[in-house]
Amino acid sequence: MSDAGLLNLVLFLPAIGAALLVPMRDEGRMRALSLVAMLVQFALAATLYQRFDAADAGLQFETRLPWIADWGVYYHIGLDGMNVLLVLLTAFLGPLVVAGAFTAITKDVKLFYAMVFAIQFTMVGALVAQDLFLFYLFWEAMMIPMFLIIGIWGGERRVYATLKFVLYTAFGSILMLAAVIYLVVALSGATGATSFAFADLYKSTLPLPVQTVLLAAFALSFAIKVPVVPLHTWLPDAHVEAPTAGSVILAGVLLKMGTYGFMKLGFPLFPDATRLVAPIVMALAVLSIVYGACLALVQTDIKKIIAYSSISHLGYVMLGLISLDLIGIQGAIVQMVSHGLTAAGLFLMVGMIYERCHTRDLAAYGGLAKALPVYSVFFMILTLASIGLPTTSGFTGEFLVLLGAFGASWQAAAQGDTLRLALAVAAVGGVVLGALYMLSFAGRFLFGAVKVPHGTQADLGFRESAILVAIVVAIFWLGLFPAEPLRKTELAAKAYQQLVMTARVPDAAKLAREERR
Amino acid sequence: MNVRDLVVAMLPEHLLLAGIVVVIARDLLPGKARDGFVPALAFLLLAAAAAVFLSLIWYQGSPFPGQLSVTPSDLMAKAVILALAVPVLMLTRDDFADGRFPVLLLASLYGIGLILSADSFLTLFVGLELMSLPVYALVVLAFRGPPSAEAALKYLVLGGVASATLLMGAALIFGAGGSLSTAAFVAALGSPDAMAVAGAMLVLAAFFLKAAIVPFHAWAPDAYEGASVPATAFMAVIVKGGVLLAAVRLFAQAPLGGPVADLVAILPLASIVWGNLAAMRQSSFRRMIAYSSIAHAGYLFYALLGEGAGRMQAMLFYVLAYGVMNVLAFAALPRRERDADADRIDSLRGLYSRAPFASLMIAVAMLSLAGIPPLPGFVAKFLIFKNVMAAGYTLYAVLGLVGSYLGIYFYLRVIQLMFMSADVVDDGRGAPRRLMRSASLLSLGAALALMIFPGWFIALF
């Protein structure tokens, strides 16, 4: 099969899997089918990653077919350095989510796996889409399976949490839709041809005020998804009420859709506005890092600690993206993947202990290192990766982001703008806070007097260990050998930097000149 | 008058008429009571096929010059309405076994055929009356006690008001311009003559009344609630679609401007907002659908704000997507929920464990009505708002979109009740008949086609 066909297969495999589930009656077979489909998807995605040519800056494995020809909407998908790692991450987490839910989900099994397939399909779709219409379709459709996953298989306050999730994300999306339509209409007014292709939209030359308003609309949608403080309040509720699989998908990939959106669309579509608001975005990113970490520090619910740590970790991604420094941008991409791995692993582990002890109250636990040694080893590794210990992926990501943020802010400070430098320093404070809350969490959780709710519990079984081994291997792979992934993402990061740094309309250049004076 | 044109141009209407005659004749024949369903369905399919065929061969004709003419796009509009009537007719089978419902339905469709080819206010008026009178009867047909009578009466009185408004408007336009042709309406819109403008406004108000646009909407919830499910579906899908398509035809390609554009934007915007807000508070499923249809009428009228050439396309796609989804919801509604006394949203609680197929169908319909991609309701909404924005009404487009956000909650609440609530004990009333299932599968098939090949339909319209 051609490589382009392979990418189509990666995209549609979950849809095929969902269709195959429909006539099935036996729950064991449904689980087996789901696992096999997800493993095949991962194998294919890994093949694509292997064949991905780091020296080619353009789209690879591209498919472009007319879909709504009258409006210039194309079914246009492809891989570039920006999405190749994220597609790999999504496909990697797929089988883990499925396997992790084998014992946890016993109600409406068919619907559950169909929904996992549906969300996998929409997430990969949003990542590989190269047409704004197609992207929006997948972006918005993503919400529905998550709505059902939290709402049907969630905890006690699931309905509240899931409605909050949907009403938040839908509000962002509706304004983004207005901006999408405006952007395309404006472009077709200027060039005479209606096109939704990213490549064409990158060439739009809108005046600065329009750019700013449109960026605000896009950014609202993306920032809710990331989430950036102060738009984060839906996340803890959604995480706490979601079943483990839902939390893993949410933290592992769904949140990255927000940062990916900023990187692929928000910032490069409106570069002049982006440079104008960069200090605000940077401040919000640092606020997310520090505030998220502070909130994580005071939680007593173990799921909430990890939920707030996600807010903090994605703040680094935002910081790296807005630094507009090549190293920072690459760090942001690595940090996305790294957070996807560690947060997914931690949520899976919380799910495993919850299945045994039925409580998420941190005070109820203690000394698990003695009671559940295997569990504790994995938990400690993930904790250290989350803090960013060297040799783990967390280190690669956070270090590169901070390096980039400092690199950019030194230059700014040399020109008298010290705000950025102050923010970069504050972000380093976030790293310390991160170590503090994760280590104190692990300390109370794993060490001290042995407290295991509901008596002694069995340690991890083969299935659970296999899932965690996969994650740990991936974490060390990215921590020890970051050169290859960095090489494959470098050209895309450069292209992003180029797009955002180049002035599109003259009045922005004028503004920059005035600033220099 | 040209006989050939008379035969060909009105072929769909002729087939409907033949269907009416056949069904009535079979009823009159001695012997056991006959079912009018099969011949009605056959003639309906023939009529729809004829309309599609004539549209595709690009037929254009004027059997009664100055009164009635058809263009390919009119024929496509008729084809969409007739095709949507097919699953609606299938819905009637459970409630009405004799020929009354099919005859009334075909007669009303004949009226819609007339308003979709009217060139003068006379034809338009005759068509509107012919469309409405059978619907009054349809509402009382499944007499379920006082609510049905009240609903029918309200609908009748409001329908009378709409007719009177239309006639008054036509009279004023005639007084100002001396012409009863629909082209005079377009001229009156931009006329400096106060009488002409007043006439045009009254005509517009009549359409607002028929389509249940705020503040002329109060009849809809009562009428929808009091009628039987097939009659409600007919009102919500066919009548509304027919009226809206006729409105597009009436405006022809004329650009809107000034106060007319504001009127065409503000009242529909109010409908979108109010319809969605009020729908949140309803406890009856049919009342909720009624308010939802008030909001959707708002989106549909928005299509008029767009550039002349794209209006019909946007409207046709929307009517088709919206109609298919409403029919799907009504067809999937389990028997118990179809009774007026059990028509409460709460009774959908836990439906998924009782009737997974039905609840999935209703969920698809709700998501599409909420305009969530990739379902066809999204593409339909996108098309309308894209045209509105392209015409320069950015503010109205943004407000309309924000208004549509208000609707998401109550559609999702239906899904939430069906999937996320503890089961309510099944009272054991029978599952829907096979025909009902075919109707929902038919609608689902249409919805999937609209979802996967939207470009094909848009190119067709």
Account of the 3D structure:
The complex is a heterodimer of chains A (517) and B (461). Chain A is globular, with a radius of gyration of 22 Å. Chain A has one domain. Chain A has 517 residues and is mainly alpha-helical. Helix content of chain A is 76%, strand content 3%. Chain A contains 21 helices and 2 strands. In chain A, strands 1-2 form a two-stranded antiparallel sheet. A two-stranded antiparallel ribbon of chain B has the order 1-2. In chain B, 75% of the residues lie in helices and 2% in strands. Chain B has a domain at 255-461. The mean pLDDT of chain B is 86. Chain B has 461 residues and is mainly α. The longest helix of chain B is centred in the middle third of the chain and has 32 residues, at 146-177. At the A-B interface, strand 1, helix 5, helix 6 and helix 7 of A face helix 18, helix 19 and helix 21 of B.
